Amino acid sequence: MKKLLLVLVALVSVVTVIGCTNTQETTLVIFQNKVEINETLTAYATAWGLENNVTVEVVTCGGDSCAYGTQILAEFQKAVQPDIFVIEGMGGYNLYADKILALDVEAWIADTDLAFTVDGVVYGFPVAVEGWGLGYNLEILTAAGVDPADLTSIDAYVTAFAAIQAYYDANSMTDYAVVSMAAGDGMTWFTGLHNFNGYLSAGLAYDDSSVIDDLNAGIANDTRLAQLANWVELLFEYADPTVLLQGTYDTQVQLFDSGHAAFIHQGNWIDPNLDEATFEMGYAPHATVSGTVDAIFVSAPSYYVINKDSDSITAAKLFLNDLASTAAGHNYMVNEAKMVPAFKSVTLVPTTPLSAAVASWMASGHVYAWWQNDMPSGFGMETIGPIYTLYASGQISKTEFIAQIKAAIEGLA
After folding, report:
1. 303 Cβ partners below 8 Å, 6+ apart?
2. Beta strands 54-60 and 26-32: pairing type?
């Protein structure tokens, strides 16, 4: 009997060891670049993980403190790689194509017009719809006698900026600025991508890729470069000089949030950071080209993609499908992350001011495309952005600004 008991105990021990060895907890690592949604995404992902028996880790790298493009390459060298990561258009796809899983039967694909595709194959889940124009403080504009509906040309802006500055001067508002805009070191993602996108798409039909196609072929458009320079010159002239040269994302937003700037050159992603603002705000078009401008820049700026070498592909697909199709996912996108969703099934309406403004412009159909992410990887931030910094600091003239950008484009040939 004693021997029989020992045998039974041994068998139970073997079964227990085998069972423990075969039980592996599913983990999901999400590597993303939007610092402003880090906390809300982490909270949503953690709750989703608890419901689905998945341990989810959100790793965030972005803004002016972490170079996403450099860090993601380092992440791919680690023993535990990201299962879901972010690309921004063709530039990112071309860089990481050998790591991206092709998708074809996911439920969310039929629910959006903004999936990232290459040659008809879906690769990317649109994180959100984002947009930017020139954000305005209606309270200041009204006090200065400026109607934002009139801001549809660079001539209108010349008049409006002068009127606002005159209003400040007349009321001894010495700590107020017409424009909150940063163009110094660390802000080239903002100048070399967002501002420069006006050169690529302003005044064109949404599907007109002629300028970006030329740029990628090394061909510069002299007329559009001159018009871009006129707009940048005007923005720099009326920007708060400290923020322009030394400002970070936070200081740029804070100047506007505090009610001390009439305009801000940022997109609706700043909504979660507008803690103090009590004034009405909206977007007016950027006057990047001459003539009438009647649209703001709207698109899906970034896409979640799945690492084809992941051990958690099933969990990654489920996470994305639930984000697009469940009430919890919709609530996260609209009410928690303050985003404009890219999915038709979402019935929630953004209540935050700049996201609501983007949604309104989208509904009107007056939108220009985002082509900045289709430039070669690094071209905007590492080549074009530093030229803005030189111009903002007075190290080069407007003529040299144009010439250097032209030379950079032609260098792509």
Report:
1. 86, 87, 88, 115, 116, 123, 124, 125, 126, 127
2. parallel
Q: Which residues, in sequence order, are bridge partners of residue 32?
A: 60
Confidence of residue 19 (pLDDT cuts 50, 70, 90): very low
CATH 3.30.750.24 corresponds to the domain 132-298+366-410? no
Do domains 23-129+300-346 and 132-298+366-410 share one topology? The answer is: yes
Report domain extents, the chain: 23-129+300-346, 132-298+366-410
* CATH code at 23-129+300-346: 3.40.190.10
Higher pLDDT, 20 or 259: 259
Secondary structure of 94-114 in HEC code, one letter for each residue: HHHHHHECCECCCHHHHHCCC
Report how far residue 190's alpha carbon sits from residue 373's, in angstroms, rounded to the nearest whole number: 12
> Which pLDDT does position 247 carry in this prediction?
95
pLDDT one-digit tens code per residue, 114-167: 899 999 999 999 999 999 999 999 999 999 999 999 999 999 999 999 999 999
d(CA 348, CA 342): 12
Q: In this structure, what are the phi and psi dihedrals at residue 63, rounded to the nearest 5 degrees?
A: 65, -150
Residue (of 301, 270, 305) closest to 370 by Cα position: 301
Q: Which residue has the tokens 């802000």?
A: 187
pTM of the predicted structure, to 2 decimals: 0.79
Contact 54, 316 (CB under 8 A): no
